[in-house]
Design a protein that fits this description.
The complex is a heterodimer of chains A (225) and B (117). With 225 residues, chain A is mainly α. Chain A has two domains: 65 residues; 119 residues. Chain A is built from eight helices and no strands. The longest helix of chain A has 30 residues. Chain B has one domain: Arc Repressor Mutant, subunit A (Orthogonal Bundle). Chain B has five helices and two strands. Chain B has a two-stranded antiparallel sheet with strand order 1-2. The N and C termini of chain B lie far apart (42 Å). The chains are: A mainly alpha (225), B mainly alpha (117).
Chain lengths: 225, 117
């Protein structure tokens, strides 16, 4: 038609593509969070290189995004499984990793269960007990997030405080339960598990997280293709 | 021979050996895919590299990243002496294993049938 501007196929194609194609930012950040510190830069770098040089030109942005998400799920799941369930050495923090994970999960579930039961039964003074139970659940959750998903290096200090609080709470409940006229079996078990988790946290926190892997060598200049 | 290499571990080690100084994550993945003639997930290659390094069979160095990687460094791998020994043992084990069975199986089964008749 006269007057209609002619658009070449190349120009039309380029208008459909994003100006600065990149892997999905949120997925890249999530992967960096889930990977151990040692591999964060190198593995995300490999993926970005593959994405930009091979996948995006071959498949287009949408399929390339799906490809990236598939890689994310594959790498993250394998990395987490190997991180949680294999010990790389006999160093104390490695040996403690799995028991600490199990104890943290247990504490988290116990806290949530106690808070739910207190909110249902509503015995006198229940709001305080709900707050304590939620605090306990939060400590379990925070331990998992900080120690296993590396969500914040700054939280280490808070984990020390949380570990001491757990030991104090567990010790208080344990002694009170022994001295009271009606002994409660579940309080006995919970208090012991809180004390155990507290000591496991203190023992595991005694070593820097990076120590779980060999120290990365300094940057060496090579002729990369 | 207590801790023999698995097939996938052998494929990864041989890929590193073949790539030489250009052996980094992405190149190793492509090499393994082409030698095994199947699609291999990146996760399995990285986990295997991690495990092999923890066992002292390979060593890695970091090198500066390219613009395509957003400046992120590359991790280059090379085989350690223990890795070469492990490959030797795996190769020897396969040879020994196959020596005990006449091959091809077709010839063997034909001979067995003849004896039975």
């Amino acid at each position: 038609m006269a007057g209609q501007s002619k658009v070449s196929p190349g120009e039309k194609g380029s208008s459909m593509k994003p100006r600065n194609p990149q892997p999905p930012e949120w997925a890249e950040q999530l992967l960096e969070r889930l990977l151990p510190a040692r591999d964060r830069q190198t593995i995300t770098g490999d993926l970005r290189e593959e994405y930009l040089e091979v996948i995006l030109p071959s498949y287009g942005p949408l399929r390339a995004h799906f490809w990236y998400l598939r890689q994310l799920s594959s790498i993250a799941s394998r990395s987490l499984v190997s991180h949680f369930f294999t010990s790389r050495s006999l160093a104390m923090h490695d040996v403690l990793r799995t028991p600490l994970l199990i104890a943290s999960l247990w504490t988290c579930i116990c806290g949530a269960w106690l808070a739910t039961m207190e909110s249902i039964l509503q015995h006198p003074g229940y709001p305080t007990r709900i707050a304590i139970a939620l605090g306990v659940a939060l400590i379990g959750l925070a331990t998992i997030l900080a120690r296993f998903l590396h969500l914040s290096a700054r939280s280490e200090r808070w984990l020390w405080i949380a570990a001491v609080a757990l030991i104090a709470l567990g010790g208080y409940a344990f002694v009170n339960n022994l001295l009271t006229s009606h002994f409660e079996g579940f309080v006995f078990l919970l208090s012991l598990s809180f004390i155990l988790q507290g000591f496991l946290m203190l023992a595991a926190l005694g070593w820097p997280r990076a120590g779980a892997r060999p120290t990365p060598p300094p940057l060496a200049k090579t002729t990369a293709s | 021979m207590a801790d023999l290499l698995g097939t996938f571990e052998q494929a990864v080690l041989l890929a590193i050996l073949r790539l030489g100084p250009e052996a980094y994550g992405r190149a190793i993945l492509h090499q393994v895919q082409s030698s095994l003639r199947r699609n291999v997930s990146a996760g399995s290659v990285y986990t295997t590299l991690d495990r092999l390094e923890a066992r002292g069979l390979i060593a890695s160095t970091l090198a500066e990243g390219t613009p395509a990687r957003g400046g992120r460094p590359r991790r280059y791998y090379k085989i350690a002496a223990a890795g070469i020994r492990a490959l030797d043992e795996a190769h020897e084990a396969i040879i020994t294993l196959w020596k005990s069975v006449p091959w091809p199986a077709k010839a063997r089964s034909a001979r067995v049938r003849k004896v039975a008749l």
